[in-house]
């Protein structure tokens, strides 16, 4: 299926690896030009080099910018390179796990900055231009923990729930009639470095082995496997497509059937 987005420009955050990289790769394969962002320049350059191979086939352009997207200076550096994005995929590292008794204001502010206010600022900076051009796609990578909270992930589900509420309203505002959609993608368990780090952390706290914890999680998923970043990216690319113009303000769970409810 031709998604009808060849030649569009996408900003993909947190894209040197993991889910962000999967989204960038799927977009590049559709001929979408991308500016990818992550903090570490080495991994980012390697990611850009991998994307350049797909870009040769699709005719896309790949740019990269090593910045911390959760800072004002980082976002200013990105927007000094390019401003008129048609597609924005918001994403950054998730907050640490822990016990809520240990979290103070500074922990919450950090989580809110990274997982609520950064997407908000990126949306605010780009959607009016999208509306003026009559096409725009905002995809926020959030988490299944918004829909199915886990005690140790309170900073994540708390901050991301704030974003979810904001996006739910903004998506249904005046921009909706001007070709701009905003949706959230909620990953369950995907095979990325973040997943491994989460279980290393949990193993340290519980005294269980990493392998055992990972195996227990895998078995609890009806699909009996973790997701891979290519299938996540493909969903992102579809949500960015012309065909997905009527999908707006949704929270799309991608979890191999792990959530036990039907809605
Ligand atoms: P990952 O660690 O594999 O990759 C994260 C990417 O984001 C890397 O490229 C990293 O360099 C970049 N990044 C992190 N902080 C950044 C910042 N401040 N500025 C710019 N770039 C930054 O992680 P992932 O598994 O791809 O997860 C992506 C997001 O999805 C995270 O917020 C994570 O909490 C969330 N999530 C992941 C899963 C999962 O199973 N993998 C499940 C639920 C939610």
What would your notes on this structure say?
- With 263 residues, the protein is α/β, with parallel strands linked by helices.
- The protein has 8 helices and 7 strands; from the N terminus they run E-H-E-H-E-H-E-H-E-H-E-H-H-H-E.
- Helix 1 (18-29) crosses helix 8.
- It is globular, with a radius of gyration of 18 Å.
- The model has no long low-confidence stretch (mean pLDDT 97).
- The site of nicotinamide-adenine-dinucleotide has 29 residues, from helix 1, strand 2 and helix 6.
Distance between the termini: 28 Å
How many runs of DSSP E, i.e. beta strands? 7
Oligomer: single chain
Bound molecules: nicotinamide-adenine-dinucleotide
Unreliable spans:
none
**Helix-strand pattern:** EHEHEHEHEHEHHHE
Describe the strand arrangement of the main beta sheet, using strand numbers.
3-2-1-4-5-6-7
Share in β-strands: 5-15%
Q: Report the sheet with the most strands, covering strand number, pairing sense and barrel closure.
A: 7 strands, parallel
């Amino acid at each position: 299926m031709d998604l009808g987005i060849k030649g569009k420009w996408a900003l993909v955050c947190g894209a040197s690896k993991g889910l962000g990289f999967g989204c960038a790769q799927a977009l590049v394969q559709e001929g979408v030009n991308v500016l990818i962002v992550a903090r570490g320049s080495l991994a980012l350059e390697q990611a850009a080099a991998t994307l350049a191979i797909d870009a040769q086939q699709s005719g896309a352009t790949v740019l990269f910018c090593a910045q911390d997207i959760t800072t004002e200076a980082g976002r200013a550096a990105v927007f000094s390179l390019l401003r008129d994005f048609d597609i924005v995929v918001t994403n950054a590292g998730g907050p640490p796990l822990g016990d809520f008794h240990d979290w103070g204001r500074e922990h919450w502010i950090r989580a809110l900055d990274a997982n609520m206010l950064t997407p908000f600022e990126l949306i605010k900076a780009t959607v009016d231009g999208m509306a003026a051009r009559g096409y725009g796609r905002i995809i926020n990578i959030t988490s299944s923990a918004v829909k199915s909270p886990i005690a140790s992930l309170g900073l994540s589900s708390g901050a991301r729930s704030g974003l979810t509420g904001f996006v739910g309203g903004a998506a249904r505002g005046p921009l909706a009639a001007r070709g701009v959609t905003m949706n959230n993608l909620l990953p369950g368990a995907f095979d990325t470095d973040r997943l491994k780090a989460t279980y290393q952390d949990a193993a340290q706290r519980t005294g269980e082995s990493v392998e055992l914890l990972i195996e227990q999680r895998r078995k609890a998923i009806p699909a009996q496997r973790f997701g891979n970043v290519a299938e996540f990216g493909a969903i992102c690319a579809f949500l960015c497509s012309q065909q997905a113009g009527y999908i707006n303000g949704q929270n799309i769970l991608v979890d191999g059937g792990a959530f036990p409810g039907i809605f």
